[in-house]
Amino acid sequence: MAIEIEQPSVGLSKVAVSETHGEDSPYFAGWKAYDENPYDELTNPSGVIQMGLAENQVSFDLLEAFLETHSEASSWGKGASGFRENALFQDYHGLLSFRKAMASFMEQIRGGSAKFDPERVVLTAGATAANELLTFILADPGDALLVPTPYYPGFDRDLRWRTGVKIVPIHCDSSNNFQITPQALEAAYSEAEAMNIKVRGVLITNPSNPLGATIQRSVLEEIFDFVTRKNIHLVSDEIYSGSVFSSSEFISIAEILEARQYKNSERVHIVYSLSKDLGLPGFRVGTIYSYNDEVVTTARRMSSFTLISSQTQHLLASMLSNKEFTENYIKTNRERLRKRYNMIIEGLRSAGIECLKGNAGLFCWMNLSPLLEKPTREGELALWNSMLHEVKLNISPGSSCHSSEPGWFRVCFANMSEQTLEVALKRIHNFMKNRERDRNLKVI
Amino acid sequence: MALSKNQQLLSKIATNDRHGENSPYFDGWKAYDKNPYHPIDNCEGVIQMGLAENQLCFDLIQKWIRRNPKASICTAEGVHEFKNIAIFQDYNGFKEFRQAVANFMGKARGGRVTYDPNRIVMSGGATGANETVMFCLANPGDAFLVPSPCYPAFDRDCGWRTGVQLIPVNCDSSNNFLITKAALEAAYERAQQDHINVKGLIIANPSNPLGTVLDRDTLRSLVSFINEKKIHLVSDEIYAASVFSTPSFVSVSEIIEEMECDRDLIHIVYSLSKDMGLPGFRVGIVYSYNDAVVNCGRKMSSFGLVSSQTQHLLASMLSDDEFVDNFLKENSKRLAKRHSMFTKGLEKVGIACLKSSAGLFVWMDLRRLLKEQTLESEMNLWRVIINEVKLNVSPGSSFHCSEPGWFRVCFANMDDDTVEVALERIRVFVEKQQVKSKRKFQNNLNLKLSCTPRRYDESVMSPHMMSPRSPLVRART
What we know:
The complex is a heterodimer. Chain A has 15 helices and 13 strands. By secondary structure, chain A is an alpha/beta fold. Chain A has a seven-stranded mixed beta sheet with strand order 2-8-7-6-5-3-4, with helices on both faces. In chain A, strands 9-10-13-12 form a four-stranded antiparallel beta sheet. In chain A, strands 1-11 form a two-stranded parallel sheet. In chain A, helix 7 links the parallel strand 3 and strand 4. Chain A is globular and about 75 Å long. In chain B, helix 11 links the parallel strand 6 and strand 7. In chain B, the strands form three sheets. In chain B, strands 2-8-7-6-5-3-4 form a seven-stranded mixed beta sheet, with helices on both faces. Chain B has 18 helices and 13 strands. In chain B, helix 6 crosses helix 13. The interface between A and B is large, with 82 and 96 residues. Chain A: GO terms for molecular function: 1-aminocyclopropane-1-carboxylate synthase activity; pyridoxal phosphate binding; transaminase activity. Chain A: Belongs to the class-I pyridoxal-phosphate-dependent aminotransferase family. Chain A: It comes from Castanea mollissima. Chain A: Homodimer. Chain A: It is an enzyme of class 4 (lyase).
């Protein structure tokens, strides 16, 4: 039977042909430039330095040292049955020992200011999956989540692509250090209402990506009151909670709830992952911690699509249940990140560049608005292009994070050695010096 | 906090039933969980025969792991790779992993096909793979035809979050459960009349629950059918290397080499959960001949990537040709032996199974033990088997089989001794049936039949996700 191959092949789904996966944004275009010409201290010292990747590479030695001294992490427990049991283990509840270790780790990060129940820990393959899964549970296609800008570019894909849910921005700007205000919350809600879109929740990232700053207690209280008033959900993505430079400065929504004896807490869900704090994005370890029993049950069922490898659960259970290790790790990691942060801030300041005052994360929120030819998105992208192709630094333009104010850039500092960071700072210094010189020449 | 108030706060997907757990079939699992068999501690307990796991070849894998400490990032020999592995989250996956999986898939098909590593897309197990494929191919409300009886969780995997519906194409014993063109055409036409947009056909080959492989002619007619209708073909080949006798397995990949076909319509789902017995490692694969589906699927794989630690281990293991060749051979041999032992034991007591050459289970024919050829009778018999014979088997209706009296019985998740115990219990049961009158049979039922969906609390776990508690494991602890 002849089949005409020339005919257009049968179509794919709407989801498949949409662009909501977001890969055509400049956030990802910079990666191409890096991929094509990656910096290497020895073999390619004039290549592009990757500063668009929020990875934590400052504390691997601690993890490696643990593995070298704890052989139980590499074995599968007593005798032959250990491997077999682990290899067969696909229970969507997850390894109890691992859930306990995660709950305990989350408690330690918060300095004991909140308790976490291992029975509420739902495991997913990364925070990417956790955020999408929660969205499937909390909202119907066409509904919206309110998300403060600027936000992590991946949210466009994670929250919207396959779920059909929309994001309505809660606008924040530099007039008050990009803090979320009650007015902004109300405005976003009204905007959605005006478009006849049902708002199902607010999703915050605390500490914030890309701002690199924690949300203040009073703001968290306001957000919680807001969602309670509107009878909607609150998702708090606390993926950087262990990357706060000073332990006292992070307030988790869990603390707010505990202080209120968990009244109205069934609308709150926390997302966490080991990708940033432990620097293990490859292992795909995400969790949803929900105060809502229905959500826990449903999320658990849904996690079938995205379970964590039992081998990885076993390894991390042994690592994270070692309190001596985790306490030391959390403390040391914090100090090293703070040191890195100070280094980049100082370096930028001496080049005449200011950043938002930050206290967390793997990046700083750099203000290059004084350099813009025009205070527009186009002006920002033009500057970004210069940074990428002339200065050879891949940094993330604020517009890719949906920043309503042009000229801000997210610059990562923890995914490289100190030497490389020095090189990057030198390049920025030279860039600024040359600009100053060119400007002065023009004046003359 | 009232339950109904909660339900209003959650999405339709969250509050509907397509997760599939509100089904009466969980009684079997409950019975097992409450009273699991153990050769010493609980020899009267329920034997788990409802779990399609392959536990026959762990020794081979463990031996390899012990001999190759570099493949683990936790050993002294392998820890120097820790950092590189730990930061690797590229959704393309390690090149070596894709190559190793492509290599394994080719060898499982006797080298008759080669697979392109660049078409290997990762997913969260076959569960994730089937869902991903549906997200790529179909819109909410669209439908896929699925020959039945079929894997019960297809409905959840293919339709829960995607909104895709599955339309069964019924097969029965009149022709050994073959899929006929007539049945496909009828199902397709009915869908058209109901204004349902059919986007494709999904098959499991080898079949779960039948354990049969599709013959060449049937495969060719399926490929013709989908080309004619311009719909997709998804072939779930998760049991490809769990074939232990003839007829041997023919993959759709082989068929498309032999006949004209629009390759953009052909997609394979695979996993290491059955063939290698590693369900915990969550290695699901989407292999599509359609470039757009590969690209889209790859982006979607971000939602279910394989742990880089696991990719690293398996890349090493599956690129060891000597290991793979030996594993595939041994696995088939051991499955053949187990299958033979079990079916011969059943034959001795007059129980026949559908002739099969693959899978981790048999499709057992208990029609003659039914009081009436009805679903109700099947469920009655099933409850007797669970509660009296103390075997957790899966009734055909749980696979949407339209013909009552068939049961899927798993045989690869236990040791030989346990198989003997199970066979003995079946022998005793069958002999009792022959003695009893039909009236007495009726009186022995001490459980009310309940087919209405019930909500189960957290103490009942999904059969697909339950902690395996094989008697073998318990015996050693």
